[in-house]
Amino acid sequence: MSLSDLDQSRYPQLSAPPRLLLGPGPSLVDPRVLQVMATPLVGHLDPFFLELMDRTQSLLRQVFQTENQITIPVSGTGSAAMEAAVANMVEPGTPVLVCINGYFGGRIAEMASRYGGEVQTINRPWGEIFTPEEVKQALGERQAKVVAIVQAETSTGALQPIDEIARIVHEQGGILIVDAVTSLGGVPLKVDEMDIDVCYSGSQKCLSCPPGISPITLGPRAVEVLDQRETKVANWYLDLSMVRAYWGSERTYHHTAPISMVYGLYEALRIVFEEGLENRWARHRRNAGLLWDGLEEIGLELHVPLDYRLPSLTTVRVPDGVDEMAIRQGLLQDYNIEISGGLGELKGKVWRVGLMGFSSRRENVRLLLSALAELLG
Amino acid sequence: MSLSDLDQSRYPQLSAPPRLLLGPGPSLVDPRVLQVMATPLVGHLDPFFLELMDRTQSLLRQVFQTENQITIPVSGTGSAAMEAAVANMVEPGTPVLVCINGYFGGRIAEMASRYGGEVQTINRPWGEIFTPEEVKQALGERQAKVVAIVQAETSTGALQPIDEIARIVHEQGGILIVDAVTSLGGVPLKVDEMDIDVCYSGSQKCLSCPPGISPITLGPRAVEVLDQRETKVANWYLDLSMVRAYWGSERTYHHTAPISMVYGLYEALRIVFEEGLENRWARHRRNAGLLWDGLEEIGLELHVPLDYRLPSLTTVRVPDGVDEMAIRQGLLQDYNIEISGGLGELKGKVWRVGLMGFSSRRENVRLLLSALAELLG
């Protein structure tokens, strides 16, 4: 091993291919956000940065549609925000109900069990949604202090209605965690109106910021759970009782914030509100509609019924006899377009097409449809 | 709460002040790294990105001076890498010895206790180091499976020799975790030669990459501990038994990597080896020497004796009668220079001056000394 000169042939200058990102995330990042990522740093306790933290939190509250004080970006990718939700709400012995109809519901259950939760699950086939009655019945059989459900299942493309389920969970005294990784900023989500207790998301989906920072918000019931824990949060880095002191008025040092990522998130949120949140939801729905119609026109079948189909992520059934991987490779190699395959139950059976944030554009839909039609011959 | 237009006066375009970062981190980022942070994204399973991951890991091995297979960047800031080290090595009942001579030793102990470790600590005043005999004695009184020590205490500016301690820990069958957050890339660190089992760092110190991604490496003894755990790693996001499958040849999806941060880290590592690792250590030592001499010339006293003084982070005693905060504010307001105050035992007693990575430059030393001399009158 040498301490000396860099071997430029083995470690060439970074030269990324110009991908059109139409997979389950990351989405394309607005050039304005990319530009901001290159801003020289300030210290993480610099007065300028502290003010930026306040502004970012305020914009996050608006995008979540909440007045929750604890509304912050977690210093990690979406799974870190998921783990922050679970780690702060679950302690050993906490009865937890997780609704699993896709990959990410399963991940929540796995995490809750690692934190010592007494985890019960209810299950639906991947691509379907839960009825309020199913949740009610499960809670009737065993009460749960924490209930978790995914609003926008990135693995299936199903959009889960939340309102009625929140009411049921609260009636029996529980709190509701909602995964909004693939909905925040692209699909209607109103944390206060829907009465969600803990909601988290990622940056690299409908917000179109690079991955590495992930919004979370805690409502009053969740803060009460946090305050009344009998044990310390088992996860130090994601301990919101400490993280909130850094993002709150105390400014107590906890860990160094990922400064460039906060820059990027701030700019991404500014862009959201320049467009307007409702306009943005409408754009996602409109472009998804174009995609759905176009896919059906070229003879493809959509995995999720229109009633609860997610605008930001579409699952397309792979026709019999088609090599799903070959089509994806063709899109990538011939057109620089990324779409994704299925996960878990849907592996090999569907493609996943994301139209999120900056990627959700009429021209992208048209190009993808045209390329797909050609490759499917 | 409005869903409509952005209030540009409340949320102005990002316009960061041009700070000279001479605190405990982040350090200044090389403009080449900043530029790379603005590279458009590819997917986290894109062939281009997978190749970049391999190259980044290979450069990380070189900067750690190790051949350890598991050498990866953790998707979070330095404390996440610390927690990854602890969470993967400690399970309920694991006897742990933590050497505390500053803030970050204390943090390791706190984390180890959250993961159920039976934590014993030995303590030295902040700014001092441990002798091998002290570690030997502690292990003689109670064996420990895991011993943790900080090579470069960011809170005190002390540089802890490691070699002899590693030998003692291994003699009694333990593994050694070393915190190299403020040394990697700036201060001699040779993981294999020093026989360190787990070593982690941050990106925003001597590597001069923005914070948000943090190198860690696990040697054979540590991998054995990981493989022979009786319980799952209590932290899902940082579970290296899963993360290594994503960074290894399996490429199993675990969580979305912070793509832009990997871009930045790759470029930062290229820059390290363009300079040469030993040249870089020498530059850090040389500029630190200039600083130390200059500080003593203007009558200031250094907190740590020369014998074990850390080149990357210097603690300067605040003279009697001087308002330490006022001096820092003067530096920031009049000169856009960031230095930092003390933490914990040293709060109000020292300033902390970092000369790390791109910040470690002769001109920065000269400017700081000149500004300090003026402000101290």
Helix content of chain A: 40-55%
- What is the alpha-carbon Rg of chain A in Å? 21 Å
CATH level-two architecture of the largest domain in chain A: 3-Layer(aba) Sandwich
CATH topology of the largest domain in chain A: Aspartate Aminotransferase, domain 2
Q: Element order, helices and strands of chain A? A: EHHEHEHEHEEEHEHEEHHHHEEHEEEH
Total DSSP helices of chain A: 13
Low-confidence stretches of chain A: none
Q: Which term fits the overall shape of chain A?
A: globular
CATH level-1 class of the largest domain in chain A: Alpha Beta
Largest sheet of chain A: 7 strands, mixed
Oligomeric grouping of the chains: homodimer
**Overall strand count of chain A:** 15
Strand-pairing-aware structural class of chain A: alpha/beta
Strand content of chain A: 15-25%
User: What's the mean pLDDT score of chain A?
Assistant: 96
Spatial sequence of strands, sheet with the most strands of chain A: 2-10-9-8-5-3-4
Distance between the termini of chain A: 51 Å
Say which CATH homologous superfamily of the largest domain in chain A is assigned.
Answer: Type I PLP-dependent aspartate aminotransferase-like (Major domain)
**Most extensive contact:** A-B, 92 and 92 residues
Number of domains of chain A: 2
